[in-house]
Write a structure and sequence with these properties.
The protein is mainly alpha-helical. It contains nine helices and four strands; from the N terminus they run ααααααααββαββ. The strands form two sheets. It has a two-stranded antiparallel sheet with strand order 1-2. Strands 3-4 form a two-stranded antiparallel ribbon.
């Protein structure tokens, strides 16, 4: 059997890794706020709920790393107690507060991805019924695990049965929620891309495919990290501390990164560029110039957290209906 890493060394490495991720997060957050609050067209309102949610997650991640730094100073610069003895006291007030921060941030992160799914599916509550039940279950498991940290006895660790059963449930439910919701979002946008390809041409469909790529890549990063934590925790190895503290920052980095990638134009552009005010169409062999319809569909490269949000009325049927009403198919040519 492989020898486990000592608790004090695992805690030291986790602190170092967490501060690295926090530095990355701080840079991304600054860019994200610029995109959310300033990189907008004139007259466009600031999406305050998304600014508040993004800021709340960053603040909780900041407090989390501050708590870990404080605990590190107490552990390694205390002549009356060794670092190993200090970190073993998981019932300490700072330790419990740290767990509560992680639980709350995890719930907010999962809640945002569920909300994103709700928006992309045209504000359809039926689609997110199961994810909401899973989110509520995650919340219950998270705070029961935090509560049980205060109920442990000297000599117990984070793998004590009353903590492990709720902690394992928390990680498992959060992982399942993210996989399911990410799949729902990607499926919805893929379907829209398929409709756009049939009616507007492949050039416009590519923009949706880029969105699917961003969503799947971001979801894969978070799911992989969460799965790694779950495996290490079930193996009852102290290496799980490294994954746990890293994930406290990664869960905020992933949604922030989506805003940054889209906001900086790395992957998408506004699909409404297609519907220009003047266009040339061919009807009955005669070329006409004039205003054309504006698609009721927007692929927003803008300031919202849901950077790939689609208007609820943007369905394949409405796109086809609009195209048919003008006698256009494909890239603006007559039937």
């Amino acid at each position: 059997m492989v020898k486990d890493i000592p608790l004090d060394k695992a805690s030291f490495v986790s602190l170092w890794v967490e501060t690295f991720f926090y530095g990355t997060y701080a840079v991304l957050y600054a860019i994200c706020i610029y995109i959310l609050a300033y990189k907008k067209g004139k007259g466009s309102p600031v999406n305050r709920p998304m600014v508040m949610a993004t800021t709340a997650m960053f603040l909780m991640s900041t407090v989390h790393v501050v708590v870990d730094l404080t605990r590190g100073l107490k552990a390694f610069f205390n002549p009356e107690q060794s670092a190993l003895e200090y970190y073993a006291q998981i019932w300490d007030g700072l330790s419990i507060f740290k767990q509560a921060l992680y639980a709350t941030n995890n719930i907010v992160a999962d809640g945002l991805v569920v909300y994103r799914c709700y928006v992309v599916w045209g504000y359809n509550w039926k689609i997110i019924t199961v994810p909401i039940v899973m989110l509520i279950s995650t919340t219950v498991c998270a705070y029961l695990a935090v509560y049980n940290f205060s109920q442990v006895h000297p000599g117990d660790n984070v793998f004590a049965s009353n903590i492990a059963e709720w902690g394992t449930a928390l990680f498992s439910l959060s992982l399942a929620t993210n996989i399911i919701v990410t799949s729902l979002i990607a499926t919805r946008i893929w379907w829209i891309a398929r409709q756009a390809s049939h009616t507007l041409g492949r050039r416009h469909a590519e923009k949706y495919k880029n969105a699917v790529a961003i969503i799947l890549e971001s979801g894969a990063i978070y799911s992989f990290c969460l799965m790694t934590l779950l495996i290490l925790y079930c193996q009852q190895t102290n290496a799980q501390y490294i994954a746990y503290d890293s994930l406290a920052q990664i869960m905020g980095i992933v949604p922030t990164l989506i805003v940054v990638r889209v906001g900086l134009g790395i992957s998408t552009q506004d699909i409404t560029d297609y519907a220009t005010t003047h266009n040339h169409t061919t009807v009955g062999g005669t070329t006409r110039s004039g205003p054309t319809f504006a698609l009721p569909m927007r692929f927003r490269q803008n300031t919202e957290f849901d950077a790939y949000e689609l208007d609820s009325e943007a369905t394949g049927a409405t796109i086809i209906g609009k195209v048919s009403s003008t006698g256009l198919t494909g890239d603006g040519m007559s039937k």
